[in-house]
Amino acid sequence: RSMIEDEYLVNWILDNLPAATRYRRPGGEFTYMDGFLVGLMQNGRYFVHNHVTLDIQWHQNPDNYEGYRVVGFEVEPRSSAALTKAEACAGGSPALDLDNQGEILYTYDVRWTESAVRWASRWDGYLKMTGGQIHWFAILNSLLILVFLSGMVAMILLRTLHRDITQYNEVATSEEAREETGWKLVHGDVFRRPRHSTLLAVSVGSGMQVLGMSVVTLGFSVFGLLSPAHRGSLLQSMMLLFTLMGVVAGYTSARFCKVFEGDEGRWKFTTFLTAFLYPGLFFTIFFLLNLCIWGEKSSGAVPFATMFALLVLWFGVSVPLVFFGAYAGIRAPAIELPVKVSLVPRAIPEQSFLQQPLFMSLVGGILPFGAVFTELFFIMSSLWQHQFYYLFGFLALVLVILLVTCAEISIALTYFQLTSEDYTWWWTAFFASGSSAFYVFLYSILYFSSRLQIDKIISMMLYFGYMGIISILFMLLTGAIGTIAAFFFVRAIYGSIKVD
């Protein structure tokens, strides 16, 4: 009774195809739901689905292959109070009321149906799952809003910057020069090494590693090379690509280390942290959570052999690639800076509350979170509610929107900070877009309280542990994009003015 009240679903798999229940909408169209309900509750009475008709759809093409292929797996559940298997399969018996029935007879029958659906298209029906229309309209709405905001931010920055650069390059009198204000005044400090520069270089490098993994994985998924039909292939590919992208992390962190500290900087220590800091954090959380699952004697625990394989990938492949990328990055010519760093740091004027980096970062993170809000709901539903996620094309589009948004919001807030003569912009650029991960984790708390019915401590630890890892990955990805975009923006605007 409690399972019927909580709308538990039964999930079956045949030839890697999950069972789907077909429903007819009021307009005559069909929609599909993953699995089928354990039972129904009507007027205070409980009816269990104890008979299931399996509709197995097959396709043949003698010109291309021999035999038959399963292209569809639909189920039709019903409640039957029949006392024999023959009566249950024949149908027509009344529904089984749990209050009036002591023993439950579970039966099934199989119906084989020839289908014109080809093997390559057998997953297309699952795109018609409930909520599909909401998904499409929400994506379109998000796209239109973000395009409008992006255009507005870009137009403001371009107009303001054009005016600033024109004024700064005009020949000013000595009296006007004394009254000069704005971002030109901090040209001697704008590229000064920030506090905790090594951690920033490591974070940006790790963020580019996550970005490389995401882009390549989505590319394979969009072209159909990674399909839901091959369960587990997506996660395996992401793990392997994250390992291989260690070369990108090492190269990026070494390049930023060279910008901060020059050729004689602590690039070896930076590379060591790049190889071990964030991967070590993720592995530690994963290992501790896995220990909890082992303690519960769950079949979902990752075996020791797989854990050892992960360590081999990390130490045997990822770490050498990080050091190789760092060596290539430190050997490459240094990025030329348009202005020199002064010997004495300039005093920063007192800033108002609205100009504080913490407040600006928290405000800036709202826009990137808005870009992924809709997709985040569907991805979390596929992770925690066993629903299908197959719209990788839309996910790729959202990733592009996210990257553009992160770059623009970091550039905008960096410009506003420099205008107020505050040259400590490095970490602001990182967290202006990276703080969106804070909203992702807040949303995971809301999703947990409103969508999930989890009351066990271990299950709660698993949920928040994995969502914590996802939030950190999201922070690294968005923060790296924001920092790199702001760096090249600052480099471009200071290269376009005349500095005495």
Describe this structure as you would to a colleague.
This protein has 500 residues and is an alpha+beta fold. The protein contains 15 helices and eleven strands. The protein has helices at 2-5, 85-90, 132-169, 174-178, 197-222, 233-244, 246-261, 267-295, 304-331, 357-364, 366-384, 392-419, 426-434, 436-451, 457-495, and strands spanning 9-10, 13-14, 17-18, 20-24, 30-34, 36-37, 39-42, 45-48, 51-59, 69-78, 107-114. The strands form four sheets. The protein has a five-stranded mixed β-sheet with strand order 5-4-10-9-11. The termini are far apart.
Uncertain segments are none
Number of DSSP strands? 11
Please give the largest β-sheet.
5 strands, mixed
The order of strands across the largest sheet is 5-4-10-9-11
User: What class, by secondary structure content?
Assistant: alpha+beta
Tally of helical runs: 15
State the share of residues found in helices, binned by percent. Answer: 55-70%
N-to-C SSE string, H for helix and E for strand:
HEEEEEEEEEEHEHHHHHHHHHHHHH
Radius of gyration: 29 Å
Any chance you could write out the topology, listing elements then pairs?
Layout: H1 2-5, E1 9-10, E2 13-14, E3 17-18, E4 20-24, E5 30-34, E6 36-37, E7 39-42, E8 45-48, E9 51-59, E10 69-78, H2 85-90, E11 107-114, H3 132-169, H4 174-178, H5 197-222, H6 233-244, H7 246-261, H8 267-295, H9 304-331, H10 357-364, H11 366-384, H12 392-419, H13 426-434, H14 436-451, H15 457-495
Parallel strand pairs: 4-10, 9-11
Antiparallel strand pairs: 1-6, 2-3, 4-5, 7-8, 9-10
